[in-house]
């Protein structure tokens, strides 16, 4: 089975993040870890996300943990934790926050794939299983995208991901 690290960046958006986390728990895929990188939130995000971890996994810290950016990037903590909250200490933006999560996954040395999500995402139960299967079927693929639907109208598609790459510098689709 391929292990997937699901990486989200949070900044003052714990309510959206908790809704996303709840949807991730319904995934029909057996081997994933959730990593939330908090970008120096000024609201109660870190507290609320710790409460979510405790409510979801218990207070023993065996299945969830909170790490500093430095500790996470060194691979400290448990790579077996189902949920890892990384406190970056500053707003690093989406790219910077995501990079911290990617460095943590690399330090754990057991990531086959990483799935980068916006924290205001609600996922379908089969989304991860289907993306992993697609990547296994298409070995030359470097990344995979998914269908993005409107939050309030699930029948309406906002974007289709990963089907066509547009190489604007050459003026042609590949």
Quickly describe the structure:
The chain is an alpha/beta fold. 33% of the residues lie in helices and 24% in strands.
Topology:
Elements: E1 4-10, H1 14-24, E2 32-38, H2 45-57, E3 64-68, H3 69-74, E4 83-87, H4 93-108, E5 113-118, H5 127-137, E6 147-149, E7 157-160, E8 166-167, E9 172-173
Parallel strand pairs: 1-2, 1-5, 2-4, 3-4
Antiparallel strand pairs: 6-7, 8-9
Helix pairs in contact: 1-2
Could you tell me how far the N terminus lies from the C terminus, measured between alpha carbons in angstroms?
Answer: 31 Å
Shape type: globular
Quaternary class = single chain
Give me the side-by-side strand order of the main sheet: 3-4-2-1-5
Strand content: 15-25%
Low-pLDDT parts are: none
Could you describe the largest sheet, including whether it forms a barrel?
5 strands, parallel
Provide the gyration radius in Å: 16 Å
Let me know the average pLDDT: 90
Structural class of the secondary elements? alpha/beta
- Give the helix tally: 5
**Helical content (DSSP H or I, runs of 4+):** 25-40%
Written account of the structure:
With about 170 residues, this protein is of the alpha/beta class. Helix content is about 35%, strand content about 25%. The strands form three sheets. It has a five-stranded parallel β-sheet with strand order 3-4-2-1-5. The protein is built from five helices and nine strands. The mean pLDDT is about 90. Helix 1 runs parallel beside helix 2. Strand 1 (about 5-10), helix 1 and strand 2 form a beta-alpha-beta unit.
């Amino acid at each position: 089975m391929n292990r997937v690290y699901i990486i989200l960046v949070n900044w003052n958006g714990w309510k959206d993040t908790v809704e996303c986390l709840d949807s991730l728990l319904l995934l029909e895929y057996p081997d994933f870890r959730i990593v939330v990188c908090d970008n120096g939130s000024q609201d109660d995000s870190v507290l609320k996300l710790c409460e979510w971890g405790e409510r979801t996994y218990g207070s023993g810290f065996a299945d969830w943990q909170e790490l500093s950016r430095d500790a996470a990037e060194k691979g400290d903590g448990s790579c077996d934790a189902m949920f890892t909250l990384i406190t970056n200490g500053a707003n690093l933006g989406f790219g910077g926050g995501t990079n911290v999560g990617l460095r943590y996954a690399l330090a754990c040395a057991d990531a086959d794939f990483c799935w980068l999500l916006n924290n205001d995402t609600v996922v379908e139960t089969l989304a991860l299983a289907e993306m992993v299967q697609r990547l296994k079927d298409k070995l030359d693929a470097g990344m995979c995208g998914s269908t993005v639907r409107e939050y309030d109208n699930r029948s309406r598609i906002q974007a289709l991901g990963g089907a066509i790459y547009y190489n604007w510098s050459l003026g042609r689709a590949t």
